[in-house]
Write a structure and sequence with these properties.
221 residues; alpha/beta; Rossmann fold; six-stranded mixed sheet; four-stranded antiparallel sheet; 7 helices; 10 strands
């Protein structure tokens, strides 16, 4: 599902070059739940963003579902993400002027799906948010907002689900609910799940844990 080879990422900062990732290579089979772990600043989120095509690497190649995402232009990348990738952010990234249902319906509408509202409502009901469908993000708790974000990410049933510290802003009990939800989606839809976390206890839920330190893979278990 994912093939990363010789990936490096360097950025100019304050008049000097900062190395974020160095020669990272990784193969992730379809359907696997992979946790990318490591301390803050180890390059975890950068790696996830590169796999999603949100950034371009300095060197190396990334294939997702047989497509070289590093070779796509911005328009092709946008279409690829729409059709293949669901992304869950730590800070939810919900649109504040839209209700929960409208937020979930956005990717469905962009893809031209009929019955987007009905599909969004059904997804929210599955995640225990039927009564919150017409609430705005500011009216929802952090855990509820993250469940809406998960519903939005899986609305098109993407083959790849990426989650960047999805429990980072939540208490431990709510965080466990989100992890259980993501694992359930991974098992039910058979999608590949890649989750970034600095929490070893959360990483332990995964089929496999890759640990980064200083931009390099230091273990793969």
């Amino acid at each position: 599902m994912i093939s990363v080879s010789g990936l490096s990422m360097r950025l100019a900062s304050g008049g000097r070059v900062v190395t974020i990732l160095t020669d990272v290579s990784l193969e992730v089979p379809a359907g696997q739940f992979l946790a990318i772990a490591g301390p803050s600043g180890s390059g975890k989120s950068t790696l996830l963003g590169l796999v999603a095509g949100l950034d371009q690497p300095t060197a190396g190649r990334i294939e997702v579902a047989g497509v070289d995402v590093t070779a796509l232009d911005e328009d092709a990348l946008a279409r690829f993400r729409r059709d293949h990738v669901g992304y869950v952010f730590q800070s939810y990234h919900l649109i504040p002027t839209l209700t929960a249902q409208e937020n979930v319906a956005v990717p469905l509408e962009l893809a031209g799906r009929r019955g987007a509202g009905d599909r969004a409502r059904a997804l929210l009901a599955e995640l225990g948010l039927a009564e919150r469908a017409h609430h705005y993000p500011v009216q929802l708790s952090g855990g509820e907002q993250q469940r809406v974000a998960v519903a939005r990410a899986i609305a098109l049933e993407p083959p790849l689900l990426l989650a960047d510290e999805p429990t980072g802003n939540l208490d431990s009990a709510t965080g466990k609910q989100i992890i259980d939800l993501l694992v359930g989606v991974n098992r039910r839809l058979g999608c590949t799940l890649v989750l970034v976390t600095h929490d070893a206890a959360l990483a332990a839920h995964a089929d496999r844990v890759v640990t980064l330190r200083d931009g390099r893979i230091v273990s793969d278990e």
